[in-house]
Amino acid sequence: MDRRQKLLEVLMARRQETVPNLMQELGVSRCTILRDIDVLSCSYPIFTVRGNGGGVRVADGYYLDRRYLKPDQEALIHKLLPGLKPEEQVVMQSILDSFAKPKAG
């Protein structure tokens, strides 16, 4: 498996990881990880955050195989749903059915 593909899969699964952990897991240098992040960020919403609690992150709501609504977006749709006309409710419900993140359990 290509190193960048492996890095992308790790980030998609964990959503956030530190550069030192990625370096160790992939067996590469800091410069290599940062260069790979730079390349991947051109095609995927991946970014770095400095400082305590920082690291490499994937944007909220983005999933490799599918994009989901963010929790606040889903909550707003649920709040607005009762005030819509019946035909609009059907459309809005179809949006929820397609893009709401599946509930665990």
TrEMBL record:
Domain HTH deoR-type: 1-57
InterPro entries linked to this entry: DeoR_HTH, HTH_11, WH-like_DNA-bd_sf, WH_DNA-bd_sf
One Pfam family named in its UniProt record: HTH_11
Glycoprotein in keyword set: no
PROSITE patterns: HTH_DEOR_2 (PS51000)
Superkingdom of this protein's organism: Bacteria
Keywords annotated in UniProt: Transcription, Transcription regulation
The keyword Phosphoprotein is annotated on this UniProt entry: no
GO MF annotation terms: DNA-binding transcription factor activity
UniProt xrefs under SUPFAM superfamilies: Winged helix' DNA-binding domain
Protein name: HTH domain-containing protein
Organism in which the protein naturally occurs: Selenomonas ruminantium
Lineage: Bacteria, Bacillati, Bacillota, Negativicutes, Selenomonadales
